[in-house]
Amino acid sequence: MKKKQRIKGLRLGYVKFSGIGGYREKMITELLEDGIPVRNIEVTEEEISGAVSPLDYYRVSETARRHGVRIRAGERRGIYFTLSKYRTRVGLCVGALLFVLFISLWQTTVRSITIEGDVPRSQIMKILDECSIRIGASTDTLEISKAEHRILAEVSGCAWADVSCEGFRVNVRVEKGVEKPEMEDDKPRNIIASRSAMIVRQIPRMGASVVENGSGVNAGDLLVSGTVPDGRDNILFVRADAEIIGEWNETREFFVPYNETISIPNGERKVFKYLVYGNDEYPLFVGKAGAENSLYTEETRIVKLFGQKTAFKLKSGIYTAYTSQNITRSPDDALSELKKQKQTFEENFYSEFDIVNVEERFYPQPDGIRLVAEYTLQGDIATPSPIEMGDMSMPVPPDTSETSDN
Amino acid sequence: MGVREKLIALEELTARKSTVTVSTDGGLRNGAEICVENCRCIKELDDNFIVLSVYGMDIRVSGTPLCLENFGVGSVKITGLIHSLTFEENDR
């Protein structure tokens, strides 16, 4: 049995032909001279057979006719004939064309922006937006290198930035460098007072203390000196280090009116929904999301289909408008509001200090209540100050100077 | 000799050189493949004999069954169980 041979090299397909009579050799020679590839030419006593590309069959038949060979086409195979079957299906052709058009157009605009790296997303998005890189922008107009330079220049600690556009997706990768460790400076220094206070206690670790407990100091006064005598009329410069706890008083005033106009987010609600798949978000609305003078909140829930969870999520961005409201407080409400204000202030500004005592005095006024709070605070008032090399003054403890005078 | 004549001579020179490559994949019994470049014409074509004409020589291939393929201008490939390959001088 004759082995069936595979026909190679004819990408669009092939037409097998067989022919009888005529000058077969001349026909093949002419095809050879014309460079028409003919595969599997087999010759028996009566007939010649072979396979050619469907695009070359017409020329082969013409050549055969010239040399008296009567040929007929046999088996036809390949993508050329597969596609030919559908040439009358207009819907399929239009669909394929639209698909190609859709893919082509889809790739001409940015549909997704992905940001990788531990960087503030809002800052990166703002830079990208200013470099014409935004959802819906044409991929031809993206200023990619400008965006990279701006990210490098504007994002703090940014060591490397890469912005690339692949199809309709823009990928931003930002790498931060390892921050330089804080090196302990070994230059000699003094410790001075950061504020006016009374010294309560002190823990000197290095250097010579020049203040005593119970004494008062002004801001900038020397507390611990970095110039220390070694007992042999020499001066050593050291790096003074100490914890100096001082005590001081501060007076703060708080006021709460009985009548006040405040803004409360209970106005009109605008909800913008997005369909989320992976890192991609598809807006389910027309126009731009946003509302002025509003509180923004976000809710995300998984989309379920017939009770089964899907890979899609539905994100709702809710903008609730602020509205102005007049409120009237009773004296008790005003007092509790005052205490709330005072507590918030202490948490924000006195968290580093110990509050030793607070004297509160309330002053009722026609339009509200005023609270005057006198704080007695304790905290570390030591602050380092480098020694100027021209400053060679020796620490002079109070008792030592009196002894020397005597 | 002008440039035109030189170019024609150069073209003819390349046409005078013909390469015959015989490759046997796993022995002659499993079939062989003969590639002939710069083939001028096919003189005889039969199931068992193929005679190709190259410059100054005829190449006679005998075998069973022989299958001919052409690839590109002037290049042919003969596959099949080759019995003999003969080179005969011709008048040109």
- Name of the CATH architecture of chain B: Sandwich
Mean model confidence by pLDDT of chain A? 85
Q: Largest chain interface and its two residue counts?
A: A-B, 25 and 20 residues
Which regions of chain A contain 5 or more consecutive residues with pLDDT less than 50?
Answer: 400-406
What is the SS-derived class of chain A?
Answer: alpha+beta
CATH class of chain B: Mainly Beta
Report on the structure:
The complex is a heterodimer of chains A (406) and B (92). Chain A is an alpha+beta fold. Chain A folds into 5 domains: 14-83, Alpha-Beta Plaits (2-Layer Sandwich), CATH 3.30.70; 112-176; 189-245 and 382-405, no CATH class; 253-259 and 328-380; 260-326, no CATH class. Chain A has helices spanning 24-34, 57-66, 79-85, 90-106, 121-130, 144-154, 331-349, 398-405; strands at residues 14-20, 38-43, 47-52, 70-77, 112-116, 158-166, 169-176, 189-193, 197-206, 208-209, 216-217, 222-225, 227-229, 235-237, 241-257, 259-277, 280-283, 294-305, 308-328, 354-365, 368-380, 382-386. Chain A has a 5-stranded antiparallel β-sheet, with helices on one face. A 4-stranded antiparallel β-sheet of chain A has the order 2-3-1-4, with helices on one face. A 4-stranded antiparallel β-sheet of chain A has the order 10-12-8-22, with no helix packed on it. In chain A, helix 1 packs across helix 2 (57-66). The radius of gyration of chain A is 44 Å and the shape is elongated. Chain A starts with 13 loop residues before the first strand and ends with a helix. In chain A, 18% of the residues are buried. Chain B is an alpha+beta fold and 92 residues long. Chain B has a single domain, classed as Immunoglobulin-like (Sandwich), CATH 2.60.40. In chain B, 15% of the residues lie in helices and 53% in strands. Chain B has 1 helix and 6 strands. Chain B has a 6-stranded antiparallel β-sheet with strand order 1-2-6-5-4-3, with no helix packed on it. The A-B interface holds A 2, 5, 9, 24-26, 28-29, 31-45, 48, 50 and B 39, 41-47, 65-76.
